[in-house]
Design goal:
The complex is a heterodimer. Chain A is an alpha/beta fold. Chain A has 30 helices and twelve strands. Chain B is of the alpha+beta class. Chains A and B meet through helix 3, helix 10, helix 11, helix 15 and strand 12 of A and helix 2, strand 2, strand 3 and strand 4 of B.
Amino acid sequence: MPDNRLSVALIGNPNAGKSTIFNLLTGLRQHVSNFPGITVDKKIGVFQLDKGEKVDLIDLPGIYSLFPNSKDEKLVVDIITDPTNSAYPDLVIYVADVNNLERHLLLATQLLDLQIPMVIVLNMADIAEANEQIIDTSALQKELEVPVLTMSGKTGYQIDKLKKEIQKFSVEDKSGFLKSNPFYVMTPGEKALTDNVNTAVGSTQSYRSKILAHHHEWLSHLSAADRIQLKSISAEAGFDNIKGQISETMSRYNKFGHLVKSTLNRPNKSSQSFTEKIDNIITHKIAGPIIFFAIMFLMFQSIYSWASFPMDLIDGFFGTAGSFVRGVMPEGWFTNLLVDGVIAGLGGILIFIPQITILFLLIAVLEESGYMSRAVFMFDGLMQRFGLNGRSIVALVSSGACAIPAIMSTRTIGNRTERLITIMVSPLISCSARIPVYTVLIGFVVAPGSVGIFNAQGLAFMGLYLLGIIASLVVALVFKTLLPSDEEGSYLMMELPQYKRPIWKNVLLTVKEKVQAFVVEAGKVILVISVVLWFLASYGPGTQVQDAEAAAISMSTQQGLEDIEKENLIAAKRIEASYAGHLGKFIEPAIEPLGFDWKIGIALLTSFAAREVFVGTMATIYSIGSSDDETSVTGQMLKERRPDGRLVYDFATSLSLLIFYVFALQCMSTLAVTKRETNSWKWPIIQFTYMGMMAYFGSLFVYQIFS
Amino acid sequence: MNKATRINQFGLPLLSTLSLNKTFKIMTVYDLQEGQSALIKSILTDSYTCKLLTLGLLPKAKVTYVRSAPLGGARYLKIDDHYVAIREEEAKTILIEEVVI
């Protein structure tokens, strides 16, 4: 980020519509570091002012006040109280939902007291207008002394005016964007305390010092020495952190109550709102849970049925592309690498884009509409019994897409133990990377067709997801009994936002961002592994591969084999003699009781980086190992036989392999994010080990029963 | 006090673990019947009180107990004209005056 550029941050309460304004300003010029959730990580974008100056925009997680409870709220307070932080903004665009102004002004007045330049946006003016509210910003503007404008992120109303204000800020005197005297008047006791803190930390900003005194235990930018000093200053002054927070909050509310009244002219509302009517059904004691499970069920049915057509198209495309490249390129190792390694490997994974897109799309719609917080409300009691929090349901449902944003979404859970357990069990929920493996293997276990009105393979798919869900709850229970509880911070207390029609721009940008991350991240790994694997499967130690080929040729001549059979025999013997063959054979004794042969062994090894590599690996191994033009992995696998002539992918082995992929934690990124979020290597190691053991023994059990 | 009483960081009994309505004759949101409304009088000090305030659970606000969660534990409340979900233990810390219909 160039230093001379203006840096602007969006801050506001959750559900104030910050993301909509962010998307409106930046459009496609936005990015996120790593795998993000909707408001989980720092989202960064760029937009231009009228004269072409570029402005950096940061979207921070929604918070209610400077007295936070959860980790992502604390993150914002950490940034905003530390002017040396690289994310500390020059200007804050404070987004408030004008329909909830009573509550949304609290944080604005706190930020003003921190002396941060600000523009206040009263968002969702379109909804207010539909409710026949009249908004008058003059009293608010006069009292808070900073620009206040009504806006609609949805329709784009007044976005130009917002840009003009930012333009003004970039050239004019900053004082028009600051409040001259504090909104909150400190008590004499607080004044004395903050004077001491000011001296201790070398600051003149008294309200910031008050916040430092409140949060000295966890603010990350404080040095150990500062922390000790602040602790003793607070103790000496008899400063009661919680009571201080409450009295400040109450005082602010009392002070701006009249401001809200003079800003909004509300007509008498009808007795039951639209939201309440929907919730009468959706959160109903009996209908509520039924609707929830019906939505989940339909979600996985639709992934299966809607995606099949585009998947066939992509499959066809890569088949044609492979033949085309082989046709126009000269024969040789490079062409082999390109067709058998790169194209086969990439095709094996890109085919799953339709399913993954649908999954992310449906989850984004559930989040945007406000349904997810109803699920949190309904299942909080149940989740608590398993040592989780109602908010864990968001992580568990998002895990259906990817464990990484899911683990990051646990930052909203204030209780340490509940958060840790949610992190530990989230990867047990089947993520989108398992879809490729499931799709291929289910074909061998369940015949296509329908059961009643449902797709039979879709039902089997659902069954695997169910297995993951049950496992996650059981494991959560085990962790609950093993871990000491951190009862103090466990709470539900959550806003149930008004139902809104999802804003498609927000939904589509979220989906695009996530699918892109999947393709790029997975694509990089798969490309490298495909190439390495192609090499390992094509070459062997010394002259072993050539020897095996020669032996196969003489064997087929002796037996008088036909050309195609001869080619297949040669290919099979070659791969067996290759490095990959040696590697697979090395681990074969350990996986034989699970029904796996050495070729599956290779796939297991490669998919420890990321499980979706399985299909790419299979594609590479089998297209090297065959001479015909069969491009689909499934077709290749179906024909595969053991030395004794039995099919490799019979019922028992396919089921055993499915069970392995349900439980095993084959994802480096998940381990990395668990490490980051728990701040220790202990938890990712425990996570990897327990899931690995469940996978091994689960598969062993299944194979021994069904074989 | 039928539940074990825990101690908060000030060395006082954690309010959510006290069966207040039995010990004193004080009405809280926990005592409301489904469909009943009341005005909030005050909120007892606990480590999460500030969070309740920021959700709009303020003195003089009108609170309606809309329904309980399907599996119990949580309550769906209407505060003036917006909605929040809180746990039963959290409801016990919100004192109310006169029940209004």
